[in-house]
From TrEMBL:
The protein's name: Uncharacterized protein
Record's compositionally biased regions (Polar residues): 27-37
Domain of life assignment: Bacteria
Region span, Disordered: 1-57
Basic and acidic residues: bias regions: 11-25, 46-57
Organism encoding this protein: Streptomyces halstedii
Length: 459
């Protein structure tokens, strides 16, 4: 019943203020990682490979040696708005066509009402999220899964390297700097080249070599058995990329289970190791301000040394003499992501090679907007620069803002990645942790200096 004693229509749209309040309210998500999970994933991989052999296909190449994640927390506490922030960053460089702009830049806002806390304080799909599920099932599981995977991976790595900063970088964007990921008219890409990890997670300190691991992200609305199958496939995604010798780079396999009626759960496994991108230039750190052009690396991986040479398979391998180059690739891909998140255009293009999509960002052509990167707000006493978007949420006008701290934005706008990283590393423990701010509804500020915020527009 409503406070006035009238029956409550559960299908009626929520008041916009209530939606904004839910977006900023922290809730819990279960994190599940166990030896039993690893065994079930290995079994699912064995079953799938048996079927492939029966169909006349070779078994799928996968990384093995995964196990439960050591020391992982059993619960992730986060606000839905932080997940939406992660989804937005992950899609910032999607560049899906000439119509990009509002549809892509603000694509994460479709999940404004998709997640809600149950009585126990755990996140699950809301009624609106279940409606989205009917029409966007694959997109919803993939994008929500990506948001949670980036948050979980970042927190795991941050807990292990507390004196480092941690960046989550879309793998496809980074790989395109060295390899063509498109078919060339000579047939489709080999299967290992089509199955790629979703993120590189980089733990870094200015002036020191970075530590890197791979993340393969999945999401499902299906049963637990589907989680096992998806994680088995995720093991094939991380098999395609190697840094240094074959099979040595650590990885995380992450699958977000999104049941229709129960709370969400994130299933995660790892292959622990440490890959350090040591520079071969007499200990000198890589110059992150160096503008890169496309490389034309062979898409092959050296497996083992044999008397008659090296056996190779399809894949992507960053060899030790290219570690310094790849450090620059990762840093500049992160810079491009942050610039795209603030509004795209030429400041983004400067960080991308042609294969990475430089031409798509040479002009400020966001569909439906007259200007970008012209919104400036002070939130928690910090000046931010970015792009805003005014729209109606359940009939009420609201404003969404995505941007970057102004001083950090100035560094990246002018191509100063070294300065950006030096300053953001020094600030890593100083960002406000509040999920809201005076005059705003939900607010998310990440350690990279990016912000995503929303507020009611009073009439």
């Amino acid at each position: 019943m409503s406070p006035e004693g009238n029956p409550v229509d559960e299908d009626a749209p929520k008041h916009t203020a209530e939606v904004l309040d839910e977006l900023r309210t922290p809730s819990h998500v279960q994190i599940r990682s166990s030896s039993e999970l690893a065994d079930n994933v290995a079994h699912a991989a064995s079953v799938e490979d048996k079927k492939r052999v029966e169909d006349g296909r070779a078994p799928m190449r996968r990384r093995t040696g995964y196990r439960r994640v050591q020391g992982v927390e059993r619960t992730l506490t986060t606000a839905p708005w932080q997940v939406i922030h992660g989804i937005g960053l992950g899609a910032a460089l999607a560049r899906q066509g000439a119509g990009r702009g509002l549809a892509e830049h603000w694509g994460s806002l479709r999940y404004n009402q998709a997640l809600a806390a149950n009585r126990g304080g755990y996140l699950q799909l809301s009624p609106e999220g279940k409606d989205l599920l009917r029409f966007y099932k694959a997109a919803q599981s993939g994008e929500i899964g990506t948001g949670f995977a980036s948050l979980v991976a970042e927190r795991i790595v941050r807990s292990r390297y507390p004196d480092h900063s941690v960046s989550v970088i879309p793998a496809d964007i980074a790989l395109r700097a060295g390899w063509a990921l498109r078919s060339t008219g000579k047939g489709t890409l080999p299967e290992p080249l089509k199955r790629r990890p979703h993120f590189f997670v980089e733990a870094w300190r200015p002036g020191h070599p970075s530590k890197v691991l791979l993340v393969a992200s999945k999401g499902t609305h299906g049963k637990l058995s589907q989680v096992h199958k998806q994680l088995a496939t995720a093991a094939a995604h991380v098999e395609s990329v190697h840094m240094g010798a074959h099979g040595m780079v650590p990885f995380l396999l992450v699958d977000t289970e999104i049941p229709a009626k129960e709370s969400l759960a994130v299933h995660v496994l790892e292959a622990p190791a440490e890959t350090v991108l040591h520079s071969s230039s007499a200990g000198q750190p890589a110059d992150l301000d160096l503008v890169l052009e496309d490389r034309n690396e062979l898409p092959e991986v050296n497996l083992v040394r044999e008397r008659r040479g090296e056996r190779t398979v399809s894949g992507f391998q960053v060899r030790p003499d290219s570690f310094a180059w790849f450090s620059i690739v990762l840093a500049r891909a992160e810079a491009a992501t942050l610039m795209a998140f603030t509004g795209g255009g030429k400041p983004t293009a400067q960080y991308l090679t042609n294969e990475q999509g430089r031409r798509h960002f040479r002009h400020d052509n966001q569909a439906g907007t007259g200007s970008v990167r012209d919104a400036r707000f002070q939130i928690h006493g910090i000046d931010f620069v970015g792009t805003d978007h005014v729209f109606r949420l359940n009939g009420t006008r609201v404003e969404a803002f995505s941007g970057l701290a102004a001083d950090l934005y100035e560094h990246l706008h002018h191509g100063r990645v070294n300065d950006y990283r030096a300053d953001v590393h020094a600030l890593r423990a100083q960002w406000p942790a509040d999920h809201t701010a005076k005059g705003w509804g939900p607010v998310s500020i990440r350690p990279d200096g990016s912000i995503m915020a929303m507020r009611l527009l009073r009439t």
